[in-house]
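Contributing new records

If you add data, match the layout below exactly. Sequence lines come first and carry their own label; structure lines follow with theirs. Keep one chain per record. Anything else will be rejected by the validation script.
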Amino acid sequence: MPTAAMEVDKGDQEMVAGASGVESKAPVRSKGVSADDDREAFSPDLLRIYYARLFPYEQMYRWLGYSNMPASLPDSSGKPQPVDEQADFFSKREFSFTIEDDVYIRYQCFADQKEFEQQVQRKQPHKIDIGAIFTLPPKNHLAVKPGAFQPVERELVFDIDLTDYDDVRTCCSGAKICNRCWSYMTMAVEVMDVGLRQDFGFKHILWVYSGRRGVHCWVADDAARALTNEGRGAVADYFGVVAGNDNQSKKVNVSLPIHPSLRRAYETLEPLFLEHIITEEGQGLLSDPSHWGKLLATVPEDVRQTLEGRWKMGGSSPADKWEELVEEMEKKGRKQQQLAKKMKPADRPPTPEQWRYEVVFEHTYPRLDVNVSKGRNHLLKSPFAVHPKTGRVCVPIDPAHVREFDPFTVPTLGQLQRQIDKYDKEHGEETKSVSSINKTEMKKYVQQFEDTFLTGLYKGIRVKKRDRTERIAAVTTDF
């Protein structure tokens, strides 16, 4: 039974104060022990403590309310139009709760931060999902005519899960993960974050650990929130390099000329491919004959026979094998170059460069659940929710330090409770004035949320409000 006091102390009403940022030094990597091994990782009592003392309601309200100023609302014709500040913006946001015994409740909404906090603590959801902003409070959706209840805006979101890499990861499958396969998530964040910022101009991007085996991305820029379903689909398709199902032997097709975004991604991914995919310490693609056969199946028969014979003799490292494979494909490409000119473009074999890109991308490029991204009314798990299977908090990830992020060191509810107890025991009476967040590892994650996401978001909101005030003043003066 948890021993941390379950009442909300005064310190819990304060904002996080003096929290330090995430260490920039790479941590010692864990051995990949599952939180399932922690007998006190999750329980209703621990969840009650978490919602009473540690969940960052104030920061979540500030984010999801956007100071109650939406990017756009539809006019009578349904076309998005800029609007002025609207006091009930937060109340039109949909939440869903999954409570004990897997009871799922949709169309939850809250007038303000106080009601949000009260309802979460009353219902004790095992899972919280966040949806769109609608034309009216979601709880009233049955009280209006069909068609009157419509999603207005919503963050552009992405869901990346390790189960979608089961055809290429060799260390784990299904719900199981380890630090070897977590590198797939690291590579996905690096490629997606740069692409969203450089190719689409988005600035306010939040990356979140799903609590078990994946990552979520929330793009909160005005332009992203106002995207139609078609626009969201277009962005998702832009990153849809890996496509197809388990029955397809080839899931990546790179066209010539190679797009600049793919060249940039390759520069990031090829070194990680060499480090995490081909080595024995990684996925073992070129360190185990049972794995490299799949790769050799992508090259011409004569190249395959040459390399199989050479590699069976042993002596070459995975990096050596990759160099030999690239070299043999280059030789083959030069021989095919003259023949390819006489073929129709559709019949020409991939060039050595195309082949190289396709191999690296099939094993490293982000794999999205596009259906999550395409629909404005699709709900996604809330940051700072808790995964009931692992007990781990869905904490933010700093994309600038994503290679240092270790999912196995993310705190469970049981660990957070023990950190509170330890702090109280060591500091005595002085703990009464200290927020529970500041007694635990939650301190650094909430501060990171502030520093890497909320601060920039609210800087943009202040600029938008200032511009609005100046426009109103100009119109009044002219009148």
